[in-house]
Amino acid sequence: MNTRRFSIMALLGLGSLVAAGCVPLVNAPSGGGAVTTSTYKIGPFNLAALGQPGSESETSKTNVPRPAGAFGVKTMDFDLVDGNGTPIPRHMAHLHHVLLIDSAHTDVLCAGRAERFSGAGAERTPLRLPDPYAYLVGANDRWDSLWHVMNMSDMPMTVYIQYKVGYQTGATAANTRNVVPYFADVTGCGGSVFNVPGNGGMGSVYTKSRTWNAPTDGIMVYAGGHLHGGGIDLTLRDGFSGAQCVMTAHYDMPMGMMDGMHPPMSIDPCPAHNLVIKGKPYTLTARYDNSQPYIDVMGIALAYIWPTS
Ligand SMILES: [Cu+2]
Question: How far is the CA of 146 from the centre of ligand 1 (A)?
């Protein structure tokens, strides 16, 4: 192969890389060093039996526990546990969702709201930020939370929301690329819930989408998704490059055999290193089974972007 032909092919290769939105990691700082993992709880919630008043907790709280000092968040893992810290089987108690909020930051996509930086539902989508990226938290940032948990058993039950935080106490603005969480919700900035009519027949699909123009240039490094039972997948699409990432829901039984309360067991996250261009459109699409109605469902992706402008 002669040099000229090789360089043309290299250029073509580079072209397809850019077209796909993926960019190489260059001039990276060292990162924030060793990761410490600490476990925190919200609760207890003393939930009555399913079907009784008090079987659910759907509320919010300011000032929930967090690591002390300033640090960079690298990982988050959520679960429902009992008083001993033992995970509660998912058919016994249902984590509709939990969100953690940094009250010192303002949400990028929804003005006037504090920044929702991490969360999960029944699928328990984890957060994983590779070096040199992290979510920097100030020493005095107050963490708040909102959640919805539900007893699914016919016995009263005490549950806690548990979150494990992996963080770097050595992370600073100098050694770390600080990411901004984009709380992308197919309903926009309102109550997050919508209904699937369920009138399409066997195998039909209901879709709900929303498009934003990127407020800054940057690089997206991770996205995690949240769907309720009946959700098929979430797609985050870059309308400029055509790059997209699909977060697929996984169930422990076939879609047509579940009732509307049967949540995903997992949703594939999107590890990424994709260029984000200011002013270009980005679309989140949630797809749901439309063979039966699903009430009060959600389609949300938390995407983490390192802003460069
Ligand atoms: Cu939800």
Answer: 11
Distance 149 CA to ligand 1 centre (A): 10
pLDDT, tens digit only, all 309 positions of the chain: 334 443 433 444 444 444 457 999 999 999 999 999 999 999 999 999 999 999 999 999 999 999 999 999 999 999 999 999 999 999 999 999 999 999 999 999 999 999 999 999 999 999 999 999 999 999 999 999 999 999 999 999 999 999 999 999 999 999 999 999 999 999 999 889 999 999 999 999 999 999 999 999 999 999 999 999 999 999 999 999 999 999 999 999 887 777 777 899 999 999 999 999 999 999 999 999 999 999 999 999 999 999 998
Burial degree of 143 (CB within 10 A; 0-12, 13-18, 19+): buried
In the CATH scheme, what architecture does the domain 25-177 have? Sandwich (2.60)
Give distance in angstroms: CA of 136 to centre of ligand 1.
Answer: 26
The CA 298 to ligand 1 mean position distance, Å, reads 5
Q: Do domains 25-177 and 179-309 have the same CATH topology?
A: yes
- Give me ligand 1 centre to Cα 121, in Å: 6
Annotate 67-105 with b (16+ C-beta within 10 A) or e (fewer).
beebbbbbbbbbbbbbeeeeebebeebbbbbbbbbbeeb
On whether the 179-309 domain is CATH 1.10.10.60, my answer is no
Can you give the residue ranges of every domain in the chain? Answer: 25-177, 179-309
Sign of the torsion formed by the C-alpha atoms of 269, 270, 276 and 281:
negative
Residue 156 has which token pair? 């009263």
pTM of the predicted protein model: 0.91
CA of 148 to the centre of ligand 1 (A): 8
